[in-house]
């Protein structure tokens, strides 16, 4: 994954967001109970990214969002976002779109 890659990411429509206390949790809505292994708890930054992914976003757009929200350098934002997006892709809570 690379900041200049044309890939964009968006939420999987089969995922429901729930707030439990101060935590945001993603729950798959699938007929198969094995999907319960994919419940995903989000920290504050991941919740911000999840909200943005209501519409397709590129890595560069997400970096800009995190930098603006948390006043961090782009390299630091990218270093945090790449593993987050990779884990979200692996858990199938987001999808790559053209």
Automatic annotation (TrEMBL):
Identify the domain of life. Answer: Bacteria
Q: Which Gene3D superfamilies match?
A: Coenzyme PQQ synthesis protein D (PqqD)
Q: Name one Pfam family in it.
A: PqqD
Q: What is this protein called?
A: PqqD family protein
> What organism is recorded for this protein?
Herpetosiphon gulosus
């Amino acid at each position: 994954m690379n900041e200049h890659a044309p890939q964009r990411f968006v939420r999987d429509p089969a995922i429901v967001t729930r707030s439990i206390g101060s935590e945001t949790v993603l729950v798959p809505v699938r007929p198969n109970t094995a999907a319960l292994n994919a419940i995903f708890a989000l920290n504050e930054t991941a919740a911000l990214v999840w909200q943005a992914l209501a519409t397709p976003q590129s890595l560069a757009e997400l970096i800009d969002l995190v930098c603006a929200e948390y006043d961090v350098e782009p390299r630091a934002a990218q270093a945090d976002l790449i593993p987050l997006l990779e884990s979200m892709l692996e858990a199938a809570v987001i999808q790559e779109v053209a």
